[in-house]
Amino acid sequence: MFREEKPAADHDAIQDRRHTSRRTVDLQLTGGNRELQAAFLISEALSQHRRLEDLVDQTLHTALEVVNAENGSILVADPGSQQLVYYRSIGEKPIPPGSAIPWHQGIAGAVFKSGQQAVIVDTKKDDRQCGKIDKATGSVIRDMIILPLKRWQGESIGVIEILNKRNGQFDEVDVAVLTIISSLATPVIEEARLFEATKLAEVARLAGDMSHDIKNLLMPILCGAGLLKDELNELFARLPDRDSTRSVKSRELCDEALDMLQEDARRISERVREVADCVKGLSSPPQFAPCQVRGVVENVFRTLDLMAKEKGISLSSEGLDGLPTIEADERRLYNAFYNLVNNAIPEIPPGGSITIRGESDQKAGVLTLSVADTGRGMSPEVRDSLFTSRVISRKSGGTGLGTKIVKDVVDAHKGRITVKSEVGKGTTFHLTLPTHQAKT
Q1: Full 3-state SS string of the chain
Q2: How high is the pLDDT of residue 365?
Q3: 341 and 194 in one domain?
Q4: What pLDDT score does 35 carry?
């Protein structure tokens, strides 16, 4: 008689649980050899991963496991903004990825700048910023260890926070164990960061070349559309007046199609340039001018209407007619709405919809806009990564640049953007834009 075999996925999960349990028991049994055991565990874990997010995630999980702690976060330094950015957080209420604090403030900032760890065995006797951490993590912090992520000698690239030991308080052995973990993990994380930076630089170069090539390829299309329009105008002028109504409608349709072709060709060129600038971290100053949001949305819908109809998706707007004129960069605003609608279309089943709504708060001087879809929604991991440096694309092979462009546009207008999404219940982006730009 043959024994029924469990599916491979279940078998792997069972093996992982057994492996984790075995490692925990090993740590409890080895006592004074915990430093050696920690070095073995982190080396084993890091050797299995190559992506930066996986390395950070495994480092934090291992750190929490070996010292038996409840909460933890890894913050990576961003030299451009001079901030410590939360890259990964574990606990009852994880701090959203992308949240940041100035790297010269608080306990984490002091550890990062000095390169010296901070150990607080009783937060009641040290109120430097523990209250803020309580609020951010949703937990009452009893004790904590914050260590710099640095090589044995060299500058810090971030910090690791470990909070609330489950049994007892943090001791010298815990500090020693975490020091080994941070020291071994730092060069691997830094190497992954440098590798990603190198890839990004290559992508930036290719994006610049692509922008130039596409501009050249689009030029014959623009010229051809212009010549075709002139030819059609001459042809329609020679048609007899026997069916003037039909002739006028045909001419209007041809003019509309050619205008759309020329306009969209220009937008394609601008969009590719926008992507290239986004990848390179460059951005030309916004060109603010009076702008009607309704007109921008209509242009986006006109461009994407055919794609939406092919999938059986309806595009609609509500409340845009009564919105006041705002000061905005129309080209960038178009790109933002284009990205939000274009990204939503593949995620919506036939019969679904995308609706852009708008309201005006004259007292506050802002427009509140929303882009809501009836798609499949996003997991918390994907949702929380949006508008951060570790954005996760829902599309196979996607880069996440679309959402970065949207965030850059909103930031350029000194606005705000948030997202609400739940798997199976669709996604809604909320944008708040000022009606007037402050003079600088």
Answers
A1: CCCCCCCHHHHHHHHHHHHHHHHHHHHHHHHHHHHHHHHHHHHHHHCCCCCHHHHHHHHHHHHHHHHCEEEEEEEEEECCCCEEEEEEEECCCCCCCCCEEECCCHHHHHHHHHCCCEEECCHHHCCCCHHHHHHHHCCCCCCEEEEEECCCCCCCCEEEEEEEECCCCCCHHHHHHHHHHHHHHHHHHHHHHHHHHHHHHHHHHHHHHHHHHHHHHHHHHHHHHHHHHHHHHHHHHHCCHHHHHHHHHHHHHHHHHHHHHHHHHHHHHHHHHHHHHHHHCCCCCCCCEEECHHHHHHHHHHHHHHHHHHCCCEEEEECCCCCCCEEECHHHHHHHHHHHHHHHHHHCCCCCEEEEEEEEECCCCEEEEEEEECCCCCCHHHHHHCCCCCCCCCCCCCCCHHHHHHHHHHHHCCCEEEEEECCCCCEEEEEEEECCCCCC
A2: 92
A3: no
A4: 62
Range of the domain at 435: 283-440
Q: Which residue, 150, 174, 198, sits at the end of a domain?
A: 198
Kindly state whether residues 96 and 192 are assigned to the same domain: yes
Distance, CA of 371 to CA of 427 (rounded, Å):
8
CATH number at residue 355: 3.30.565.10
Euclidean distance between CA atoms 130 and 146, whole angstroms: 12
Q: What is the pLDDT of residue 134?
A: 46
- The list of the chain residues with pLDDT below 50 reads 1-31, 130, 134, 396-399
Domain identity same for 184 and 322 = no
Domain final residue, candidates 182, 198, 214:
198
Distance, CA of 14 to CA of 20 (rounded, Å)? 10
Q: What is the pLDDT of residue 398?
A: 41
Residue 211 domain-assigned (yes or no): no
pLDDT of residue 281: 54
